[in-house]
Amino acid sequence: SETGQKIQFKIVVPQGVKDKWSAVKLIVRDKKLNKTQELTVTLGDKSKIPGSKLSITVGVFLPDFKMGAEIITSATNSPNNPAIGVKIFENGARLFPEPESIAEWGWLYSKHPDIHPFQHDRYALILKEGIKKQ
Q1: What is the mean pLDDT of the chain?
Q2: 47 vs 54: CA distance, rounded Å
């Protein structure tokens, strides 16, 4: 029976994934100026998006994103379906995931940038790739 209850997914990051990846490279596109820039953010860090009032908190990187019934995890440690969990704020107010969402993170997917993308009238944010630890 469908109660309309939203599931709070549990995020499981395999130890091998934690040990291998240290940061992500994001592409920020300014739709107004038609310019793109790359932004490298260490996992767990917060970064301002230059020239905007946006800031992004980068959480969990999953090189091979897989969603089960109640769990989000990485099926392998290869970048088959890279995804990064992010929180995006404008002037301190959360935009992504949407304020009414119970999700802790919004997800950006490098191979499927159109799946639940971050919606903003001026800026687009895309995951380019994960960066391995040196």
Answers
A1: 93
A2: 9
